[in-house]
Specification:
Layout: H1 3-22, E1 24-33, E2 43-47, E3 52-55, E4 61-67, E5 69-76, E6 83-89, E7 92-101, E8 121-129, E9 140-143, E10 148-151, E11 157-163, E12 174-180, E13 186-193, E14 198-201, E15 204-205, E16 212-216
Parallel strand pairs: 1-7, 8-14, 8-15, 13-16
Antiparallel strand pairs: 1-4, 2-3, 2-5, 5-6, 8-11, 9-10, 9-12, 12-13
Length: 223
């Protein structure tokens, strides 16, 4: 083939690749259980410039390149309430954000847990998960002010009744929760609010490595 035709063909291929790249975007989806923060293998359906369907991986994530434009996205999984919303895909990376699916039934650890609520105590509870949304057992949880210690179970779950400390009137009682396990960064939640007869969810994301991660806690009352 003459050199001129080879050069022309190479230019056409380069132009086509540039055109396709300019008209597509990368969508990243991350699906978790709203009650536990566990990763969920969910079906993702997209309707728009290109219809698309796939299942997230073991870590609840999916990454796909699609034509740019407006899509209707539906996320569904067995045992969860489906979710439908609009998603725009532009050039470059597009994050759908962490999608929290509500389970149809509460997880086994939370069924009937209201019987543990009592005046003068706050029931602290939660799950320890790694960055892939998998449960982390044997995380040592220490409630600093109340001097309480326990470990998460095989599903990364923990619960403990914390007595309210004596505080001046009109002062919100708080405590500090420390979660530690060898091979993971220590997670410290400060100013965890305590309220009589209530429960408080503390979600622990355990990251591999050393050192500490410090957080100022925000309310997460279970409804």
């Amino acid at each position: 083939m003459p050199t001129r035709k080879l050069l022309l063909l190479a230019m056409l291929v380069a132009c086509a690749a540039t055109f396709l790249h300019a008209d597509t975007g990368v969508l990243t989806v991350d699906v978790r259980d709203s009650a536990t923060s566990f990763a969920v293998r969910a079906k993702v359906n997209l309707k728009g410039p290109k219809n698309f369907s796939a299942v997230t991986g073991e870590d609840g994530s999916l990454r796909v390149t699609l034509p740019q434009g407006a899509y209707q996205m539906e996320i569904s999984a067995a045992g969860y309430k489906p979710m439908t919303f609009q998603q725009s895909i532009g050039p470059g990376n597009n994050l759908a954000g962490r999608i929290m699916l509500d389970p149809v039934e509460p997880p086994q650890e939370l069924r009937g847990i209201d019987v543990l609520l009592k005046p003068g105590f706050t029931l602290l509870l939660g799950y320890a998960v790694d960055e892939r949304g998998q449960p982390v057992p044997a995380v040592h949880v220490h409630v600093e002010g109340a001097k309480l210690d326990l470990d998460t179970d095989q599903r990364g779950f923990f619960s403990v009744s914390v007595p309210l400390p004596d505080t001046p009137p009109d002062t919100q009682p708080t405590d500090t929760v420390v979660a530690a396990k060898p091979g993971y960064k220590t997670v410290i939640y400060r100013h965890v609010a305590l309220e009589s007869g209530k429960d408080w969810g503390v979600f622990l994301v355990m990251k591999r490595g050393t050192g500490e991660e410090n957080f100022d806690s925000e309310p997460h009352w279970r409804e």
